[in-house]
From TrEMBL:
InterPro entries associated with the record: PRIMPOL
Record-listed E.C. numbers: 2.7.7.102, 2.7.7.7
Gene Ontology terms describing biological process: error-prone translesion synthesis; mitochondrial DNA replication; replication fork processing; response to UV
Molecular function GO terms recorded: chromatin binding; DNA-directed DNA polymerase activity
GO CC terms in record: mitochondrial matrix; nucleus
Designated name of the protein: DNA-directed primase/polymerase protein
Source organism (scientific name): Rotaria magnacalcarata
The UniProt record lists the keyword Iron: no
Broad enzyme group: transferase
Highest classification ranks of the organism: Eukaryota, Metazoa, Spiralia, Gnathifera, Rotifera
Amino acid sequence: MTILIQIIKNLFPSKIITHHICDLVNQLSEQIIKSNYVFLSIENENKTRQLFYSTIEELITLFNHCPRNERTLCEIIFPTNLVKTCIDFEYYTDNNLDINDHCIGASSFLKILHFTLNFIDHKHHENQKYIDITLQQFLVLEASTSQKISYHFLHANPTVLFENNTTLGIFIQMLIHVLLTSIIQHTCSHFNIPFKLQKYTTSDLIIILSPHITTLRLHCTKCYTFYSHVSISEIAHVLVMNKQNQCTLAIDLNVYSKNQQFRLYDCVKQGQNNFLR
Ligand SMILES: [Zn+2]
Ligand SMILES: [Zn+2]
């Protein structure tokens, strides 16, 4: 038994801890699911997971009693949960040695998200102030290591709630699709590729752009998409190289599934020490 589970059993002897999501859901009436419970998963040493639910107060007690490096907790988002926008932004530094400033990609995408979730263009503000306005709504957590850049953005003061995690995923995918299309369609003295709007998937658009990433980052500092606070040069930092040296998105589109688990603040993966904070 992990230390975390021992602590839970000491603090809350009647709490039921299960191995399967269906067992957890079956314990509960519909009413409990909709009220203020948090559903949590614990990552064990052997990579299995155990599940339980608690109130926010119980969770805070647990945080205070559990040593930091034993906090292998994730929140489970059910298909019935309304969700705020959240983004996992990550890539490996070794495969992206040409990126000097790792803030560019993250902050450019954050600004675009803020714009699309507020429907207001703060044209009258300086760029420096604009990131401050963005941070009034977004919480930015970081779990970067020397090998990996890793940010987690959470729309903590939301202007939009999504019906569920899958709907949020479609919104993010669509936003990226529009963004990539408008980069491809722009022309300037350094970038001009023949492009007809046809049935492209987002992956097709990434493949079309991949030979041009360096050019875009270097030269398109005064080129813009539909949004005037972020240059195409900055947005081009959202396209990165994966471990196989193929061009991909720094935004993880695989986190918008049913019963998705998100790591909690100041928690870790079993056996690692890059706390999310
Ligand atoms: Zn304003
Ligand atoms: Zn350009």
